[in-house]
Write a structure and sequence with these properties.
alpha+beta; 9% strand
């Protein structure tokens, strides 16, 4: 490896001209098709269903009414064959895993409670039987799950152990004499908690417990456990309670479950990855307990994938509403005494909405790549251990960013819509309340990002295996001319480091694709390298000391993982540009991609300055350039949100119906008539001005 003392920096004049084609026009229909992606037909079918008022959230309904409505809606989904795509063709499904998730995530448009309740029934409960059980389980159990004869629960989380699934305390101890497992909750903190369908609707559950046989704990396994009789009463040894009113998603009957020496037949063990014979002998095709555990949990990754897509869909709804309103709503007369300004013509309003629009596009394109990766694994087309690890890493990286972005976008759009945004009829507050828990569903976001960071560190260590640490330290401290492969979890990106600090004074540097990629990727490389150095040797230390060192660097781990996920989104956006055939649309999307990338750099400007990647002089050009991009994007804002493909029946926001435009036109017509009228009152300020002139 060679060394260079010169660090790259952007060199852009403060008055950077933009020589793009100002006549670019977005082909809304073509862009809409591109956004629908590979599973366009599944999305169209799901959106047509989501347009049905029978599936819409009834705002203001009581919790009991909302729950009853959601349960009825699940039966409507069955009748419309909307939820069986991922199940085997032999049982009435279509083995279409990508199409299933694509359609499922669109249900958030109708009602997030409906989406999550459907996810509990078919994406968790049913999927656990499908992926953790054998063909015998499939034929015996799946038909009733698929047609809603058996409403069910996914009982993994415990009050005392949320994201730490490996430490759950519920036990399933095998008794060879009765050929049964004894399912038991040993203490209050081991109750299964926050379980969808547990409070009232669930007749059965897939329960996760520590499997114990012949005195050995073989770790977490899943069992199919009946919960209630036909009258809805708990079976012997089973109890529970209602979680009660929540901050959102009150159409779902979340509750708690506990088990007291409950007898479960040995056949009810979902034994695809671990089996117990009649004599208590345990066998598994996966020898390593740790690998077995992560393999079993990995089969359930579709929850994170679908939450990522649902969060993106909610952002699209919010952006469509906010931007439509902002091109109709007028406020303050700044450039004319006769007409007020449209909100979106204000730079501040553009700064509030356009970067979030850019992030929504980036998240949408990244989700499509995640969905393709998911389908490849679960269809068996690309199903190696590495493929599964990459899928898990990618889902753990993108789900936190999209769910956090959804909350931020809904809140900013709410504020950008003023008091009207606070009305329930415009859906911002309702959607935000419902999506709040998405940040902790299927894994707390910060915990997921720690998993991503650990994967990055592991891959980093592989790349430098056998390299002298002194060389490694110098490599991290300086930017080596020949950079190693940076592993993204989605692809390997070959980094060619170019010294941009000496002669690179061109006016196109900031919008240069290579420059943006170099800055974003270089930040990830350096952060991971510094973490690797700081944590080097921790594994050899006593457990307490190693944990202390790791804890001291948790914030850096999260930051590195987040930077990595943002890079993935930027790369997905850039890859989408190459697939955009219409030249005008590609130009506008390029401006939007540039806005996304440069706003990421602006948000982390302190890091770039402290690490010598940008000089203070060059950093000052960043804000003005972003403002120029806002002007470029302003004429295309409505087209960009129209391309999302959501009609009034999906958006269902009063301020996005055109009513505001009618009110504004009525107001302007009234003002014109007043000015033309002889008996219109005279403004006092005019009298004062006349008096001053005469004196």
């Amino acid at each position: 490896m060679t060394q260079t003392a010169t660090r790259p920096e952007l060199s852009v004049p403060a008055t950077l001209p933009i020589h793009d084609d100002d006549a670019a026009v977005v082909n809304v229909a073509s862009l809409g098709e591109q956004l629908l992606g590979r599973w366009a037909d599944s999305r169209r079918a799901a959106r047509a269903l989501a347009a049905d008022p029978a599936l819409h959230k009834a705002e203001g309904a009581s919790s009991a009414e909302h729950r009853a409505r959601c349960l009825d809606q699940l039966h409507l989904l069955v009748q419309n064959k909307a939820v069986h795509r991922a199940f085997p063709t032999a049982l009435g499904g279509s083995d279409d895993h990508g199409g299933n998730v694509a359609g499922f995530e669109e249900l958030v448009v109708a009602d997030p409670s409906l989406q999550i309740k459907a996810g509990v029934q078919w994406g968790l409960f049913g999927a656990a039987v499908l992926h953790l059980g054998t063909e015998e389980h499939h034929h015996e159990l799946l038909p009733g799950i698929m047609n809603m004869d058996i409403p069910g629960c996914f009982a993994m989380t415990e009050t005392g152990h949320g994201s730490d699934v490996s430490s759950i305390a519920t036990t399933a101890t095998f008794n060879p004499e009765s050929n049964e497992f004894i399912l038991h909750t040993p203490f209050r903190a081991a109750w299964k908690d926050y379980i969808g369908n547990a409070a009232s609707d669930g007749k059965a559950a897939v329960v996760f417990a520590q499997l114990i046989t012949r005195g050995v704990n073989h770790g977490v396994h899943a069992l199919y456990v009946p919960l209630r009789d036909e009258e809805g009463n708990f079976l012997e040894g089973i109890g529970g309670e209602d979680d009660g009113l929540k901050g959102g998603l009150n159409g779902i009957d979340n509750g708690r479950l506990h088990f007291t020496q409950v007898r479960v037949p040995r056949a009810n063990l979902l034994n695809r990855y671990g089996n117990v014979a009649a004599d208590g002998t345990y066998t598994s095709s996966i020898e390593s307990p740790g690998r077995r555990f992560f393999t079993m949990l990995g089969t359930l990754v579709q929850g994170r994938v679908s939450l990522d897509g649902a969060a993106v869909a909610a952002c699209k709804l919010a952006m469509k509403t906010a931007i439509q309103y902002s091109v109709e709503r007028r406020q303050f007369s700044t450039s004319s005494e006769l007409s007020e300004e449209v909100l979106l013509d204000y730079q501040l309003h553009q700064r509030r909405l356009f970067p979030r629009l850019a992030t929504t596009y980036a998240a949408s394109f990244a989700h499509e790549e995640l969905l393709a990766k998911f389908d490849g694994v679960f269809s068996g087309e690309h199903d190696t251990d590495e493929d599964r690890q990459d899928l898990e890493t990618l889902a753990a990286a993108l789900k936190p960013l999209s769910t956090w972005h959804a909350l931020d976008t809904l809140q900013e759009c709410r504020e950008a819509s003023g008091g009207a945004g606070f009305l329930t009829e415009n859906r911002y507050t309702s959607l935000r309340a419902d999506l709040d828990v998405y940040t902790t569903f299927e894994g707390d976001n910060n915990v997921l990002l720690q998993l991503v960071a650990k994967r990055l560190l592991a891959d980093y260590a592989k790349e430098f295996q056998g390299v002298d640490f002194g060389v490694l330290a110098r490599f991290v401290a300086t930017q080596a001319a020949d950079r190693t492969l940076h592993r993204t979890g989605l692809r390997r990106v070959l980094q060619t480091v170019v010294d941009t600090g000496s002669e690179r004074k061109s006016a196109i540097a900031l919008r240069d694709e290579g420059t943006q990629h170099e800055l974003l990727c270089g930040r990830v490389d350096t952060m991971v390298g510094e973490l690797a150095g700081a944590l080097r040797g921790a594994r050899k230390l006593p457990q307490a000391k190693a944990a202390e060192i790791f804890n001291q660097h948790q914030q850096e781990l999260i930051q590195a993982a987040r930077a990595h996920a943002e890079l993935l989104q930027w790369e997905a956006f850039t890859a989408a540009l190459a697939r955009t055939e219409d030249a005008g649309t590609r130009q506008v999307l390029t401006w939007l991609r540039d806005l996304f990338g440069l706003c990421l750099i602006e948000e982390n400007l302190g890091w770039y300055l402290m690490n010598g990647r940008l000089s203070a002089q060059r950093a000052r050009t960043l804000g003005p350039y972003i403002n120029r991009l806002l002007l470029k994007l302003r004429p295309h804002a409505v087209d960009l949100v129209d391309a999302f493909g959501y009609g009034p029946e999906h958006v269902r926001a009063a301020i996005a119906t055109g009513a505001e435009r009618e009110r504004q036109e009525e107001s302007r017509d009234y003002a014109r008539l007043q000015r033309a009228s002889d008996d219109a009152p005279l403004d006092e300020k005019i009298l004062i001005a006349r008096k001053n002139r005469s004196s």
